[in-house]
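Tip: read the tokens left to right.
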């Protein structure tokens, strides 16, 4: 199993490592290509009431890019066990096998309560619409574009590179540079209600 793990791409190995870490130690995992501009403590505090916190993808599946669990959580542990099962099997492995697909399997298998965040909390811009991060406008237009329900703006760095030079997102007047300023200036620090719903055994 060790040699099969080492043969995986770094993204898939990251999926396995995150499942192991949060299933054993608990806590919150978010990918590096997330812009955070609210205190995430209210989301983490949901773990007082729920075993697992999941964020959706726009296709209806669960994202592996923003997840949280209690230490020894039932769903996170089942997620990690499902990954080990995939490593032991000789079947084909898809891009999302160790993230979205195996999280979905764990939720359905355990039939255990979890909290599902709404899209706008962590991914107000669809992952396959990265051009919005390159969009140039004045401050007021960006302010109107900003989703006030968001705690995090998650982007797909891979999809952003498909638009062009990702460094161009950092240019003056882009929406991405506006988001960074909002994050650094901490203008949106106040807690707001977290959009989402309790779920059991459904995606």
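Filled-in amino acids:
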């Amino acid at each position: 199993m060790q040699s099969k793990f080492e043969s995986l791409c770094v993204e898939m190995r990251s999926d396995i490592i995150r499942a192991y870490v949060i299933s054993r130690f608990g806590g919150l995992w978010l990918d590096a290509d997330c812009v955070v501009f609210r205190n995430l403590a209210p989301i983490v505090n949901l773990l007082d009431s729920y075993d697992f916190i999941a964020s959706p993808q726009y296709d209806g599946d669960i994202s592996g890019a923003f997840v949280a669990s209690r230490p020894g959580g039932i769903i996170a542990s089942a997620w990690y066990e499902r990954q080990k099962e995939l490593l032991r099997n000789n079947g084909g492995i898809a891009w999302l096998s160790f993230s979205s697909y195996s999280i979905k399997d764990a939720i359905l298998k355990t039939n255990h309560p979890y909290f599902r965040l709404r899209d706008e909390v962590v991914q107000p811009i669809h992952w396959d619409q990265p051009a919005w991060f390159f969009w140039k406008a004045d401050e007021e237009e960006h302010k109107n574009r900003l989703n006030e329900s968001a705690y995090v703006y998650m982007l797909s760095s891979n999809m952003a590179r498909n638009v062009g030079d990702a460094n161009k997102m950092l240019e003056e007047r882009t929406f991405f540079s506006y988001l960074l300023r909002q994050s650094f200036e901490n203008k949106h620090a106040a807690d707001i209600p977290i959009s989402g719903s309790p779920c059991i055994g459904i995606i």
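The mean pLDDT is 89. The beta strands are 27-30, 34-36, 52-56, 62-69, 113-117, 152-154, 196-200.
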